[in-house]
Structures are given as structure tokens and as C-alpha cells.
Amino acid sequence: MKPFRQLILLSILAVTFLSWQPTLVTARDKTHQSSISKNLHELKLQAQSGDIKTQLRLGAMYRDGRAVTQNSQKAFHWFLQAAEQGSVPAQIRVAKMLKEGVGTKRDNSAAFLWFSLAAESGNADALTNAGKMLQFGVGTPIDLKKAFQLYLRAAKKNQSEAQLYVAKMLHKGAGIARDTIEAISWLEKSAQQGNIDSQNLLGTFYLKGNSVPKDIERGLELVIYAAGHGHPAAFHNLGLIYQLGLGVPKNDLYAYLWFAVAAQSGHKSAVRFKEGVALSLHSDSIATAKELVADCERKNFKDCISF
Known about the structure:
Layout: H1 2-48, H2 52-64, H3 72-84, H4 88-100, H5 108-119, H6 124-136, H7 144-155, H8 160-172, H9 180-192, H10 196-208, H11 216-228, H12 232-244, H13 252-264, H14 270-278, H15 283-298
């Protein structure tokens, strides 16, 4: 009987332990939640006392929803507190949120002022963004000369997007005397850093022999790389490459394929080109092209066509 009584006792203990588990879990949850609330309260006190690092931390927490409910308005509030104390990363974040209308009302003029303030520190991101707003007249009157100067400062800090804008302005002679040799030099630097906009543009230059010696192989390499990274204009250029037979056999089916992909990616003129090349294709070929489009999308546009 003794073993039997032990078995009953163990069963009772097991049931009792299991019945306590929800209570234990609930208690742990409450303790954990209480700890989070306490830490958050302490962080807010630090931030309110003017601690910039804590203000940035709270801003990021509310922006990303880490340990708190995501709240873009509160994120903007804390980033603004840090920005007003001179934090360059916070100034850039405030500028971007104002420009995008995230957590606050969209205000391009205020965004430009914050980008400009951050640019005074020499920050390449701020220089580039302020340059773009000056070039295109967003939140401030157009000033191509000043935009170029800001781009150039950022480009010299190896900012690839700024290098692209410097190259474009030099190539067109916008805000600066035209200098195609210098333009290509900056474009090459940007492309070497993996900037797909630069790779696509430089690729078209080599394909056409525009400001560089014509080099079809190099041009194809650059455009294909940009297309493999989802660049809509590169998709469109691949359509043109196949339509014209630039370095590859002329193939209207593949031309249709890439124009279709470009159109789906938002390239404005690709629809017209797709409809134009469709006139030379049989309906069966168009159906095949659509299957290829789906296949390319599944492969993220990498290695979906062998050149």
C-alpha cells in the first residue's frame, strides 16, 4: 500500500504544481511589465533633464516600437528635444520626419532648415539632402550653384549619392561649368561603391559611347547589375538593349519581358515601349513573356536571362 500512497501523493503534487503555473507566469509577467514601466519612467526623467543620448534612445524606441507601443508623434518629440540641443543625428531625423510628414505635419521649409543646420557640421547625409532640396526647389528657392557646392562637399566625403549628383550636374553644366571628364570620374566613384543609379547611368554611357569610349560589354555589365538589384530604369534599358540588339541578339520577346517588368516597377514610359514591341509579337509569344516575367520576379531578377 505504501507505494500506492506515494503514487497518489505525487499525482496530487503534480496537479497542484500545474494549477500554480498560470499564477506563477502571471506574476512573472506583472513583474516584468513593472520593471519595463520603471525603466521607462527613469529614461523619461533622464531625457527631461536634457540628456541627449536618452532623448535619442527614447525617440528610437517610439519610432521602432521597442519596449513601448510604436508612436511616431512621441518619437518626433524626443528627436526634436535632442535636435534643439545640437545633436546632428537628431537634426537629420527631425528633418526627414518633417519632409515625410511622419509624426508631425509635413513642412518642407522647416525640413530644409534642419538639414542646413546639420550640414554645418559637415555631415554628408545632411549636405546631400540640403543639396537636393536646393536643386529641386523643395522648401526653398532653387539655387543650383549652392546645391552643387553642398553635393561636392559630401562627394569628397565619399557619399555615393552626392557623387552621382555632382556627376550629373557636371555633365549637364547645371550650376557649374560643363566638364564631362570630371563628371565620368565622379560617376565611376559612385558606381564602384555599389550605387545602382550610378551603375545604370554609367552603363548607358558606355553602351552609347556618351562621354566615354563605347564599350558594349562594360555597359551591359553595369546595366545588368543594376537590374539585378531591382532598378526600374535598368529594366527599361534591358528592354532597349534587346529591342535594338545592343551586344546581344535582337529579341522582341525579351524586349517585351523587360519593358513589362519596368512598367510593373513604376517606370513611366515602359508601358508605351511594351505596347510598341507587342505589335511585332504573336499572342503566344506574349504569353511566354508573361511567364518569364513571373519567373524573373521569383528569382528577384537575378540570373533569369542568360546573355
